[in-house]
Each structure stands twice: as structure tokens, then as C-alpha cells.
Amino acid sequence: MNASMIKPLGALAxxxxxxxxxxxxxxxxxTANGPYYATPSWDQKLTTNxxxxxxxxxxxxxxxxxxxxxxxxxPGIGSPYGSDSNWYGATLNCVGVGTGGRYGWRLPTYHEIxxxxxxxxxxxxxxxxxxxxxxxxxxxxxxxxxxxxxFVRNIVAPTLLFDDRVAASANVWCVRGGQGxxxxx
Length: 185
Description:
alpha+beta, Mannose-Binding Protein A, Chain A, 18% helix
């Protein structure tokens, strides 16, 4: 065997051993049959098996395979300050929530929460989300030219809305992953 081949073969063997030795708890578990990975590519349009409820997150979170974002199945679940609040309370809710036994949640941007909707502006048929009668959800996106306003998403109709971050009240729907946007506190 050539000496120049020993290093690459050794690296290959080490990586195979690492995969085999990985603990079972590190494996992804879902309530749907794979593939359940998400290539974060906003140019794909999935019409079937778009959302996957994550069993290893106690069924409290769903992966959107179209965007790569992970959403609360029940918006506002476990929110420390309630699921209906002003913009500041909504932001704090996402910071403090431990949905699926995980922290790192945040308020979505207007574009992210809008990505959940179909062409009619509503959530697509077959979605796993338990929104109940809630329709208006805060986004972290600040209205240009007026920092006292933020965009609110209506998940029933494709209406572009914004409201006062202090005086208005809307629901909280936290997300993980993606880029997000730092908001103006």
C-alpha cells in the first residue's frame, strides 16, 4: 500500500467509527417517515410532507422543510407572560419559552411568519398547527419610518397590518433557526 493512501484511509475509517459510535439519542426522531431534513432553500415549494412534527421535541415543535425553520405546534405554548401581549411581551415570551424542552426561540420576522401561508394568505391544508381562534401574530419586523410600530401577521387573510408595539395586543408564535432580525428595543 502506498504511503500517500494511508492518511486518507485512516481519516475515512475514523469518520465511519464516529458515525457508528454516535449515541442513539443524537438521531433525529419525527412523527413522519423521512426524509425529515430541511435544506434551507426558500426557492423550493413543497406541496406534500412540508411540515414534520418532531417527536423528540415532545410533539411541541414542527419543522418546515420548505424553509428549514422550526415552529411551535401550538403558538404561545409555555409563554411565561401569556400568549396574548404587546410587542415587548411577545419578544420576552419567545426569549423565555422552553418549547419541546429547548430554549433559543425568538419572535419571527414578518417574512418568516408569512412563509407559513399559502396563496390565499391562510395556513395550508394539512398543517399541524393548533392556532385555535387566534388570527393576529406579532413579528419582530419594525415598520420603516416609525419605530413605535411593528408588523402583525393575519394568518387567515393576506392583509398587511402593523400596530403600536406598546398599546396593541396580538398573539405570540415563536420560531427557531433562520437568520431573524435584531429588533429595536
